[in-house]
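User: Hi! Is it possible to get a structure for several chains at once, not just one? Here's what I have:
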Amino acid sequence: MSQTATVPHSLLSATIEHLQHFAPFDRMAQEHLTYLVSHLHLGYYPKDAIILTPEQGVAQRFYVIKQGSVVGEQVDEGRGDEEGVNWQLVQGECFPLGALLAVRPVVSVYRAVEDTFCYEFRAEHFAELIRLSPAFSDFCTRRIANLLEQSTLVIQAQYSQKSNARQSLSTALSTLIRRQPVTCQPETSIHEALRTMQEQRIGSIAITDKHGKPAGMFTLADLLDKVALARADISQPIGTVMSTDLVTLAPQAFACEAAMAMARHGVHHVLIVDRLKLVGVISEKDLFALQRIGLTEISVAIHNATTIAALVPIGQDIRQLAHNLLAQGVSAEQLTQFIATLNDLLTQRIIALECGEAGLEGLEFCWLSLGSEGRYEQTLNTDQDNGIIFQVPPGGQAGQIRAALLPMAGRVNLALADCGFPLCKGNIMAGNPQWCLSLDEWDAKFAAWIQRGDAPVLLQATICFDFRPLYGATALAQELRARLHQKIRDNRMFLRHMVMNALENRPPLGVIRDFVVSDAEELPHSMDLKFNGITPFVDAARIYSLTAGLSETNTPRRLRGVCEQWRMEQKLIDAWIDAFFFIQLLRLRVHHQQREQGRPLSNRVDPDTLNDLDRRILKEAFRQARKLQALLERDFQF
Amino acid sequence: MTLSRFFKPRLDPALVRRIVAWRRRQAPELAVDAAKLRWVVVDVESSGLNPYKDHLLSIGAVAIQDGQIRLDDGFETVLQQSHASDTANILVHGIGGQRQVAGEPPDFALTRFLEYCGKDPIIAFHAAFDKALIGRALNGVLGIDLASRWLDLVYLAPALLPEDKARCHDLDDWTACFGIVNQDRHNAVADALATAELFLALIQKARLRAMNQAIELIKQAEAQRWLEENLAKR
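Assistant: Yes, the chains can be modeled jointly so their relative placement is included. Here is the combined structure:
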């Protein structure tokens, strides 16, 4: 009675086409997509239906959301009926990767948030597809498979608990109020009100009477309609032009009520009023932050931003996205790539906006990313490290061009700081004349460093040698890179200095294989994940790749790049890269915890606060760093 | 009973054997959970809007089993035509003249369709149209009738969702109620898929009314049809 499996041709191509809108299907070979679609079922889950639970035992199916959305909710008996929304999956996303790979039950309850259709695929076919398709396998598997898999679960559990309240549309509005409302009184002049809005970089201002009771609202849209186009006198009181049809809600109201109220009344702001007193303003934007912020949305938003002020909240969105991705257990590699991509876009947009106003036409220059930004390895507390390289036209003087570029560079540095990239403590920034140099000046600076090779110079070299072009005349950066590599080839002593310097920084492992901690001011009994954990990998990769003349700046890519030239075992390289990413992931988690607790971000962690699993992996990662250093020592004995 | 009575003499003996095998297949019990049963969801494209005069051009179908749409259990055919339908009609379904003439020979296509359906119940939206066209083709080409029970969603949907009845008229309206997107409207398979998705959603609505059995759904739709036809008469 059984039918031979056939997918009608038009259905096959339509389904493949639909899937190709999403990763990893956009990268998979046609034959593998055909295999996938030939084994698909389509299931329907009405709003609130449970799709998957831990009780169902080992995960049997792979799900891709065709339409609708699904939440993963942490199982937490202690909290009873409290809403436990963890993260939301939308059209095109897949689940549960971890459980299928590890052949175990899921740890979360997956529930449809709206009417949802899922493509479904049996576990055995999933395993087969992992085998067939490198792109699919790459997407699904993380390489330190077993340990890291489990660690990720723990991360997910931790993060999901924290993000409960923030991601749900059933959040009380009171928890969404970001700041004290900016207000003025009806008698305030339009001019004064606009100045306040400008200073505070806000798009709307609430007008209250002297008891704090809301009387009206004035937004940028009103500015156009009622002031600019109406040619109103701006010395008039704001009360004459404010909107008085206000939408108000109590602080206890839910976010979804605010969303509905906005939609119904066609407004972008809701006033939160507690006992007749204005306590906050919720904008459409605040509500959108609750939805899962996607990569595309953010990049489109960056692209469309025409003012620095519009870019400031996007910096927030990027961090929120990072948080969501962390909670979903996205690998550190992908996560840092996302962060780097978006930060790049944001920075490029800022530079473009500032350049547009500065009138720098005709100047040939390139904005350089340095340090971790140059390596595409920013975390959530990355300081700015940047510089400018420019070309001196014939007959021109470097000083003049520098003078023309510096004001713009300084404004970009400040704007980046507004967007959440703290100013560099060492002042390695494009706005500093020391780091805004012509090609020849950079060249001379590098040459001097390479001659000296002492400790302070090496520190600067580690930051600056990881430069990459971010905006402008890329060719200048390429030229500098070529000259640098030539110098290093001619001066092997410098490499030796770099190696010695790198080897001084040993991973914090004691003889009996336990952690070596120190009592830093900010956190006693702790170790520095960046300096002691990441840096050994970064330093070694830099030395190998500078020697090899690779233009890569990213640590894993450098390691992969030198693999062949130095005849290193692929397995070794993979293990280093895994170790590197694990420490990065741990750093990201630590930063997030600190941010949630409102503490300053730091790379220090007390190993006793880590769970057993993370301690085990971290030790293994440090052991890998040690191995890499041993190799470095051997390879550069000269 | 000899089978030759039922078949036109020029039918390929291999096809006759296949049709005999189909005839012997058992119809499933319909007093069971609708979500457990295999259903065939069909949509057809034709050379015009009159099911008693125009030709069957193509059949698209997907099966539902265990409450899920099986993309790997689908059916699609474009039937070979002696001449292509007119341009206005081609613009509706997009099956060009060449594809019509180069289609699958109807006797093979329809035999395959019989085997695909088995005796399982068939779902369609505006089932009367599909049923008449398929019925005429089966009768004319193979000389037999399809033995399946039909379930028409054009009646089941308003029976289960009376509150949406006033604003929902065609398949697009009803699928929109559940946010279902049809990638390729007026492609028979794509329409069948959208119809199947609607059915999955309707099964859930029926459950809310404690209606689980396939036969209950079929009867519910038939009752609604009677109601609408009799109300229309008044």
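The longest strand of chain A covers residues 61-67. The mean pLDDT of chain A is 82.

User: Great, thank you!
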